[in-house]
Amino acid sequence: MCCDLKRRFLLLYATQKGQAKAIAEEICQQAGAHGLEADMHCMSEMDKYNLETEKDPVVIVISTTGTGDPPDTARKFVKKIQDTTLPPDHFTHLQYGLLGLGDSEYTFFCNGGKTVDRRLQDLGAQHFYDTGLADDCVGLEIVVDPWIDGLWLALKKAFILQKEKEGMSSNAVPSTLSAALHIGNELNLSSEVQNLKLEDGVRSSVVLTQKLVDIHLEASTTDAEPSLVHSVPPVSQSALNIPALPPEYIEVQFQDTHGENPHLSSLISEGTTFEVPVTKAVQLTREDAIKTALLLELDIADAAFDYQPGDAFCVVCPNNVNEVEELLQILGLSDKEEYLVCVKVKQGTKKKGATRPQHIPERSTLKFLLTWCLEIRAVPKKAFLRALVECTSDAGEKRRLQELCSRQGASDYTRFIRDSNVCLLDLLHAFPSCKPSLSLLIEHLPKLQARSYSVSSSNLYQPGRLCFVFNIVEFPACPARPVPRKGVCTGWLAELVAPLLHPSKNTLDTKGGSSSTEKISIFARPNNTFHLPADPSVPLIMVGPGTGISPFIGFLQHRQKLREEHTDWKFGETWLFFGCRHQDRDYLFKQLKCFLENGTLTHLKVCFSRDSSTAEVAPPKYVQDVIRLYATEVARVLLKERGYFYVCGDKHMADGVSNAVVDILSMEMEADKLEAMKILAVLREEKRYLQDVWS
């Protein structure tokens, strides 16, 4: 490659929870070793880059959120490029490569990246490198690592062709073009061969010596099965390719003085936060139910918080207090938990464009930092494991951490860390000689994310009140995680409202409430599509087993109030399919019959998957099975009456329901399955088949 070729490329990322940013930072870091310079920006920083005039190659890393939406940081960008007045040659000058992140557990896999990719193509932009789609369901690194490996050759080819385009002679084929064609041939090689073809001196990985292999073999030969702390051949006998050590860039100073912690609202960039009282808590399930479901009511009368049934909102939650104390103890910082911590960028850091993370206050107490800012439950990324290697003194433990972040140990990482939901505390218990610094945790632990919940009420039906329903998430113990845990937010909420659920005998409140009102911080996360039809005469079908029924309670409350206020309106029929394990243990809203009696709900169909039956023909166990019994009615509502179909609940159930709908359409229309799938796709496009699902 000629020394005078341009070596800058624009690197854009759009992230919801930090993964896309972390990958972009890895690309930025590796670029220097390849003689390239990444001009990295968040996609939302539209004043710092201009695709209309961009001449250099563009690399985009973008995640997907919600039900296939681009992340919040990409919304303005997407809105801009989706302007229908833009001509089809608007971006003909642009060459780009895109890496999309998603989860195949969801219907619209990598749709954030696909949306941007498709629109850039529509506007004339050209790929200089094939689009990569990474799947968090099986491990992002399976696609991300080889995609980054191949990026450098693709960029070099793009630079060469760009130079030739600027000064190409029409009389002869220049030597640099031949070089470009040669690189183009190399690009056709598989990712494994690409790894071998990388130039010496620019590898982002380090090959370990056989001496370390031998050290670890002594510790692991007695173990026939691999585990979090032990490996077996071939991993234990391999020389390892491990990531480059991420440069340190954060510096912390402790001050033995008291000071004010920042307000929680200053940590939230997604919207305005409101601190609201919890006025009511009800356990909807019996004590012997497999899962515990709670309904909480919030008083939003004094908050400028508006919502529609079907919307979601986020709860700002802290880490578990016992886990924070345990972490402080392991780090040897228990005596400094109330010290002020000053966080700043380390002078002379090699990290390009280093800044203090947005979610980290410049000054706060150590306890506040670990409680409200850092996701200490996060599954550690490989870059974090690589950094932890340098904090580990025991040779055997050091080797195992190296294996877990290496290419050779990829399956061990997936099995013992990713799939086992291992967190920092688990690692520190498993590798006791590992003693990371606070600055390292700030550098590598992601932001503690607020948790999203569906609204289960109507502001029209209950003015000034917001209700939501959730199961208390349980993580049972496993070999890699010896202690059971509750979900970060659901466990905290359950503890917070315990006085409302189980009032103390000593309380003076004879109604059984708590004498002190707990408050939580929330912010809106409106859903643009999962709403009732604007025309109340349109029929609708709702499918929501378990806590998936939550938004439909709000739908029915809203519809009931509209019926009371507008007796002259015509209202379409409403169907609700609900299911749970046991009728007497977890039938969450038995008052659904009230909606039936007053006419708000036209049809209620329920099923119970774990209840035994003495009937000659066993009743259907799951909602997708019940739906099939009403195939004619479902087809009529969707096809003849142009009704709406809503599904809320877990991904497995949602897939079963969509399969049932495809079968119904195929049968009722006497069409083949492919044609039925196309019809369902049209319903999705028309926003008449809507899902609110989780994995």
Automatic annotation (TrEMBL):
<keyword id="KW-0285">Flavoprotein</keyword>
<dbReference type="GO" id="GO:0050667">
    <property type="term" value="P:homocysteine metabolic process"/>
</dbReference>
<keyword id="KW-0521">NADP</keyword>
<keyword id="KW-0486">Methionine biosynthesis</keyword>
<dbReference type="GO" id="GO:0046655">
    <property type="term" value="P:folic acid metabolic process"/>
</dbReference>
<dbReference type="InterPro" id="IPR017938">
    <property type="entry name" value="Riboflavin_synthase-like_b-brl"/>
</dbReference>
<dbReference type="GO" id="GO:0010181">
    <property type="term" value="F:FMN binding"/>
</dbReference>
<keyword id="KW-0963">Cytoplasm</keyword>
<dbReference type="InterPro" id="IPR001094">
    <property type="entry name" value="Flavdoxin-like"/>
</dbReference>
<dbReference type="InterPro" id="IPR023173">
    <property type="entry name" value="NADPH_Cyt_P450_Rdtase_alpha"/>
</dbReference>
<keyword id="KW-0288">FMN</keyword>
<dbReference type="InterPro" id="IPR008254">
    <property type="entry name" value="Flavodoxin/NO_synth"/>
</dbReference>
<keyword id="KW-0274">FAD</keyword>
<dbReference type="GO" id="GO:0009086">
    <property type="term" value="P:methionine biosynthetic process"/>
</dbReference>
<dbReference type="InterPro" id="IPR001709">
    <property type="entry name" value="Flavoprot_Pyr_Nucl_cyt_Rdtase"/>
</dbReference>
<dbReference type="GO" id="GO:0030586">
    <property type="term" value="F:[methionine synthase] reductase (NADPH) activity"/>
</dbReference>
<keyword id="KW-0560">Oxidoreductase</keyword>
<dbReference type="InterPro" id="IPR029039">
    <property type="entry name" value="Flavoprotein-like_sf"/>
</dbReference>
<dbReference type="Pfam" id="PF00175">
    <property type="entry name" value="NAD_binding_1"/>
</dbReference>
<keyword id="KW-0028">Amino-acid biosynthesis</keyword>
<protein>
    <recommendedName>
        <fullName>Methionine synthase reductase</fullName>
        <ecNumber>1.16.1.8</ecNumber>
    </recommendedName>
</protein>
<dbReference type="GO" id="GO:0005829">
    <property type="term" value="C:cytosol"/>
</dbReference>
<dbReference type="InterPro" id="IPR001433">
    <property type="entry name" value="OxRdtase_FAD/NAD-bd"/>
</dbReference>
<dbReference type="Pfam" id="PF00667">
    <property type="entry name" value="FAD_binding_1"/>
</dbReference>
<dbReference type="InterPro" id="IPR017927">
    <property type="entry name" value="FAD-bd_FR_type"/>
</dbReference>
<feature type="domain" description="FAD-binding FR-type">
    <location>
        <begin position="271"/>
        <end position="533"/>
    </location>
</feature>
<dbReference type="Pfam" id="PF00258">
    <property type="entry name" value="Flavodoxin_1"/>
</dbReference>
<feature type="domain" description="Flavodoxin-like">
    <location>
        <begin position="9"/>
        <end position="152"/>
    </location>
</feature>
<dbReference type="GO" id="GO:0050660">
    <property type="term" value="F:flavin adenine dinucleotide binding"/>
</dbReference>
<dbReference type="GO" id="GO:0009235">
    <property type="term" value="P:cobalamin metabolic process"/>
</dbReference>
<keyword id="KW-0949">S-adenosyl-L-methionine</keyword>
<dbReference type="InterPro" id="IPR003097">
    <property type="entry name" value="CysJ-like_FAD-binding"/>
</dbReference>
<dbReference type="InterPro" id="IPR039261">
    <property type="entry name" value="FNR_nucleotide-bd"/>
</dbReference>
<keyword id="KW-0597">Phosphoprotein</keyword>
<comment type="subunit">
    <text>Forms a multiprotein complex with MMACHC, MMADHC and MTR.</text>
</comment>
